[in-house]
Amino acid sequence: MPRLDGSESVVPVRHIGRWVSAIVAALLAGGYLYLLATSKNMRWDVTYTYLFHPAVMSGLWLTIQLTVASMALAIATGGVLGSMRLSQNPVLQCLSGATVWFLRGTPLLVQLLFWYFLASLFPVISLPVPFGPTLFAVDTNSLINQFGAAVLGLGLNEGAYMAEIYRAGILSVDKGQTEAAQSVGMSRARLMRRIIIPQAMRFIIPPTGNATISMLKTTSVVLIIGLPDLLTSVQLIYARNFQQIPLLAVACFWYLACTTALTVLQIRLERHYARGSKDAKGVGLAGLFGPFLKSRLASKENGL
User: Fold this and answer.
1) Could you tell me if residue 110 is left (phi over 0), alpha (psi between -120 and 50 degrees) or otherwise beta?
2) What is the mean pLDDT of residues 214-225?
3) What distance in Å separates the CA atoms of residue 244 and residue 47, rounded to the nearest whole number?
4) What is the DSSP letter of 131?
């Protein structure tokens, strides 16, 4: 469309189908939320009563502790296994590959139960000196309790996946930069610290954030070894008062609250490590609504 000064203006394409689908989705979601909010069987009063119940708060705190401890172990395990996979030593490569194969190939519940019942296989954990005395010996049950078994099971299982995330992130860095750094005599440790890791973090942070959010919800499987996490605490309450749905709503509320907090943290980390990248795009709400806002601004500039 020509302007008064003779220049051509850009006319944005109108997407009527998108608006129609958005309106239909909004109406369906609004109708469902209205039915849920006004249903007499929902018993929101029960939900409000137990939202900050001491048992629920205790279960929530245990869930947070499990998530933090398990992800710390997963990150450490993944870093070691990932480094071994990228090593030039074939023995380390084979050991790392076999460990990842085993941890990813067996169910998480099986691994949890294995660590929980480890005392039946090794009643005592000791460190002997070859052909000499034992430096120390400790009862397995006193060393690995329910919490320890849960952290080992969850953390080591996730560590196998973190190893692949690290490996993919490091391999995503252009090899030319590595060769250039080595040509000027930069050591391998300094190369990783100053060049490779800062760039690889752009590719490592998003899947690591997703893994942390997934870990938060996966902690509910510790019910199998009797740990009173958030979901288990809620189940114990509704086993007494038979208010299953209102109490499950309590669990959903706290899981969503924790997930939202982790998502905000992930977005901030992504933005931090995406600085200076020409491929960096908006994340979070800005990334969702950015195209819409740009199209509206273009329409206003062109007088539409």
Assistant:
1) alpha
2) 94
3) 10
4) T
Alpha carbons 67 and 213: distance in angstroms, whole number: 9
Q: What angle do CA 139, 142, 144 make, to 5 degrees?
A: 105
Structure-block tokens of residue 60? 């929530």
pLDDT in tens, 235-289: 999 999 888 999 999 999 999 999 999 999 999 988 888 776 655 554 544 444 4
97-152 pLDDT, tens digit per residue, is 999 999 999 999 999 999 999 988 888 877 777 776 777 778 888 888 999 999 99
For the chain, domain boundaries: 60-230+264-275+283-301
Q: Token pair for residue 33? A: 């939320």
Q: Residue 293: its pLDDT value, please?
A: 42
Length of the chain: 304
Residue with tokens 């996979």: 85
Backbone Cα Rg of the chain: 26
For the entire predicted model, the pTM comes to: 0.80
Q: Could you tell me the CA-to-CA distances from 296 to 21, 51, 124, 201, 300 in Å, in that order?
A: 18, 42, 69, 34, 6
Q: 118 phi and psi, to 5 degrees?
A: -60, -30
Residue of 287, 267, 157, 280 whose CA lies nearest to 205: 267
- Cα(198)–Cα(189) distance, integer angstroms: 13
Q: Give the pLDDT of residue 297.
A: 44
What per-residue confidence (pLDDT) applies to 220?
92
Number of helices (H), then strands (E), in the chain = 14, 2
The yes/no answer on whether domain 60-230+264-275+283-301 falls in CATH 1.10.357.10 is: no
**Which residues is 2 bridged to in the sheet?**
8
Yes or no: say if 74 and 162 are a contact pair by the CB < 8 Å rule. yes
